[in-house]
Predict the structure.
Amino acid sequence: MMQTMPKLIFFDLDGTLAESKAPIGEEMAALLEELLRQARVCVVSGGALSQFEKQVVARLPEHANLGHLYLEPTSGAALYEWQNGLWHKVYEERLSPAQVTEIEGAMRIAGTETGLIDWADASHGERVENRGGQVSLSALGQKAPLALKREWDPDKAKRRALRDAIAKRLPAYAVHMGGLTTIDVNRAGVDKAYGIHQLCERLHVAEADALYVGDELEAGGNDEAAFRTGVNTRAVASPRETAAVIRELLAKG
Ligand SMILES: [Mg+2]
């Protein structure tokens, strides 16, 4: 852990700031508001921008300093900052329609080939979602209940098999495990490490002065990319642990 308040703090969203696709709690909202007075904060996660707005921004107290908040949806494939009352897109590494079709095709074959997805079965919302800079496959559907998602792949064996089967067909892309049931595909070279580099450069913050907090920093986890940057890292197991980390940071500031 860093000895002083980092200049910039990155947080993963699902499993770190909030439960999967759920809004942040009241206590977390208050802690983030406090943190935004003292440091810049970036949320980086596989979801789309609308998901970040619902889960995080809409829950923050009205007077929160959004000028210090940065959003990197789709695993860092896009960056938004708050300008004149709106989320302004700084960049987005969008996939072309042909690329989206290619990715979707690979996902369909991989799901069938691994025996993990029967496309004829009903799902909780669409299974494949084009998020602009990323295509995401959610095995049970985008709107599956948390309890179902939790029990689907507790040891990540299914996600590993799906990821490998998709990656084999898409050598020119970045393919990684996302949330509890999700595989995310981005343009090659676009991942959370890319997002971290981009924002540190934009804000002229040395990576050594930044901190990344995430619940999947282990090998193969969706926060592992942070290790390919110069930022400090802090592993947490739940939003409750993240709250404790923020309290620790505030005590230094
Ligand atoms: Mg997570």
Q: What stands out?
A: The pocket of magnesium ion is lined by residues 12, 14-16, 215-216, 222 (CB under 6 Å).
